Amino acid sequence: MMERRVSGMVFVLPFIGLYCFLLILPFVMGLWISFHRADLFGSRHWVGLDNYVRLFADPVFYQAMGTTFTLAVLIVPALTLITLLLALALNRASRSAAIFRGLFFSSSVLSVTIVTLIWRFVLTPDSGLIAKLLTAMGIEPLPFLSDPNLTVPALAITTIWWGLGLPMMLFLAGLQQIPQDMYEAASLDGANRWTTFFRITLPSLRRTTILVIMLQTAAQLQIFGQAQLLTQGGPSGSSRPIVLYIYEVAFGRWELGYAIAAAEVLLLLILALMLAQYWLSTRGEEVQR
Amino acid sequence: MTSLSLIDVRKSYGATPVLDGVTLEMGDCEFIAFLGPSGSGKSTLLRIIAGLEMADSGEVWLEGKRIDALAPGGRGVALVFQQYALYPHMTVRENMAFGLRNAKVPNTEIAARITQAAQTLEIDQLLDRKPGQLSGGQRQRVAIGRAIVKEPKLFLLDEPLSNLDAALRNRTRVELAQLRQRVRAAVIMVTHDQAEAMTLADRIVVMNDRKIQQVGAPMEIYDRPANRFVARFVGSPAMTILPAQGHAASGGYAQVQLKNGTLIQTRVSTADLPDDGEIEIGLRPEHVTVTAPGSGTIDGEAVIVERLGDRTLVYARLDDGSEIVAVDRGDSSVRMGVRVGLQIDGACAHLFDADGTCHHAERDQL
Questions:
Q1: Which chain A residues have a beta carbon less than 8 Å from that of B73?
Q2: DSSP letter at B38?
Q3: What distance lies between CA A79 and its chain's CA centroid?
Q4: pLDDT single digits (tens) B130-177
Q5: CB-based contact (8 Å) between B131 and chain A?
Q6: What are the recorded GO MF terms, alphabetically (chain B) (predicted)?
Q7: With B151 labelled, which of A100, A189, B34, B293 sits at a CA distance of 20 to 30 A?
C-alpha cells in the first residue's frame, strides 16, 4: 500500500514540481513583494499593507477598473451571442460552411500586433475604412481613437473580431454533441423551428455557454495588448484597462510592490467572479445524461 | 378497416437502392413486426412511415388519409426510438408533455393523459426526475409513455428491446404484449430478433435484400416459409438445408435422395416441383431425432452437443461433410465425437427448388 503511494507520487512529482515552481512560487513571491516598496533593481523596503491602502485611495486605479468592467460587459455578451449565431449558421457539412468556419477562425491565429494594425486601418479618423465609408455617405467621420466616448467601444469591437474563433469552435463542438435523434423526436413531437431551438438546442448548449462566458470573462478582464497598441490607454486614461495600468506602474514608474498589489486585487476579483459564475450555473442543475 | 397502407414504396441513397417497391396493408389495431437482418431496409421503411425519411416514390396512407407529404408531427404516428431519445434537460413529465404542448392540447387534458399513462406504465414515482436519473428499463417506459400520451393512430417501435439486458427484455416483452391490449392502435415494431417478432406480432413482415420476403402470421412463417431465406432466418437453431436429388414420385409425393444415396419420402406434392435437377431438402431440428447408430434414416458424428435442459441439440456431421441439427431428450447421453443415428421425419420436410422457392408438405386433413 505504502509502496503504491510512493510510486504514484513519483509519477505526479514532475508536474507538481513544475506547477509549484511556475505558479505557486511566483504567486507567493508576488504576495510578499506587494508588502514592500520595491523597484525592478531589487531594493525592498517593508511597508506592510501600505500599498493596498494607497491603491484603494487611487482614483486612477478605480478609473482603470471601471474601464475594464465596461469592456468586459461590452465584449462578453456580444461575443457569446455572435459566436453562437455563427456556430448555428455554420453547423453543417457543406463545403462553404467549412470555408467560412476557417475564415472566422483565422482572425484568432493573428498576433495582437497584426490585429491592432488592421483595426487601425479601419478606425483611423482621417483615412480609415469606416471614415471613407462615412465620408462617401456624406457623414462626418467619427474620431474612434481620440474621442473618450468612442475609444472603449472601438477596443471592444477589435477584441470581438479577434476573439470569434475559439468560442465559435466551442459552440460548434457543443452542437455536434446533440444527438440527431433528439431533433427527430422533436419533429415527431410537432415542434417548429423556434420551439426546437429554444427547448432542445439552447438547453443542450447550457454547459458550453457557461464555459464560453467564464473563459471570456476571465480573458477580457485581463485585456492589455489591444489597448496598449491602439490607444495607449488614452485619451486621458479613458481606455486604460487595469492590466495596462499595472504595466505602467511596474515598468513605467518602477513601483513593483504597488503594481503587484493591484495585480493581487485583480486576481482575487477574477477568482471571485469565476466562483460566483460557477455557483450560479451549477445551482439547481441536476444529474443529466 | 385498413390502418396503414404502403403502396409501392421505393427509396435509394444515391445509387444504392434500400427499398424496392414495398406494398403492405395493415389491419385495424394490428401488431406487425418488421423482421430482417441489418441492411434489409426495415428501419428505413419505419422512418419513411414516421416521416423522418422521404420515399423516392410510392404512397403512405393512414386510416384513409395520405400522409407521405405531411410533417412527422402531423401524421398521427408516435415513434419509440431505439436509444429512447428522451430530452435530457426535461423531467419525465415535461418529456411526455412536450408533444402535447406543441399540439396545443389544453393543460388539464395534458395532466390527465400523463397521469393515466404514468399509472399504466408504473412510472408515476418518476415524473419529476430527469432521464439521467433513470435506469435503462425506466427510460424505456418513459419513451413508451411519451408515445402513449399522444394517442396516435399508429405506434412505431424501433428495436424496442435491444438495449435491455436479458431478464428485463423478457419482462418488457410481456409488458408490451399486455400494453398492446390496452391501447387501441396499430403497432409496427422493427426487430432483428425473431423471438420478439414471434411472441408479439399478429403478423410478421420478413424483409431481406430491400424487399418483403413474406408476410404472415408467426406460425405460418415458421411452418410454411416462402423461400430459402425465410426458412433459414426464422427458427433457432436454423433449419438444416441439404442438397438432394428429386426422385420418382410415390403416390404423388416427391421422394428425394441425399448425396449418400439415402432416400427420404416427403409429403411435398410433385405437381409443383420442377421436373428434375438439383433441389434442396429443409429440415427443422425438431423433425430430426437422435437414435442408436444404424437404427435411423442416416448416421452421423456428433460435433457439438448443446444441453438446454428440456432437450438437447445435437449438431451432427454426415459422411459427406454436411451438417444437420437434431434434437434429443434433455437427459441425452450423446457426447461430442460419438456416432449417432438420425431419424428424419420426411413427412415434415420442406423442399426448395433452384430459385429458392419453398415447397411445403401437405397437411393431413383433420
A1: 187-191
A2: T
A3: 10
A4: 999 998 889 989 999 999 999 999 999 998 888 788 888 888 888 888
A5: yes
A6: ABC-type maltose transporter activity; ATP binding; ATP hydrolysis activity
A7: B34
